[in-house]
N-acetyltransferase domain-containing protein (Balneicella halophila), 100 residues
Amino acid sequence: MMETDLELIDNKEKKQYEFHIDGYTPRIEYIKSKNDEIYLTHTEVPSALEGRGIGTQLVEKALIDIKKQNLRLVPLCTFVATYIKRHPEWREIILRGINV
């Protein structure tokens, strides 16, 4: 079952993008620098929610938000980096000099 209309929450206090699903909080942790860079450091989807495309959707919506804010992305998380390898159109938001 694919979830489609999940609302992305930018939890600035916890420094993470998150969804709220059935009492669970899949998330992507980030670090924002003062010079408009964002480092996505870790993606976590609770095992109860695995196999539903939630991690992928979380990455997609986070990337859309990052692009909207004109931030430069440094994908330190392997899940995010793998997603960008498969969807090279997102390379344009990656900080120059960073290889994915």
Remarks:
- The mean pLDDT is 94.
- Residues 9-93 form a domain with the Aminopeptidase fold (CATH 3.40.630.30).
- Residues 54-68 form the longest helix (15 residues).
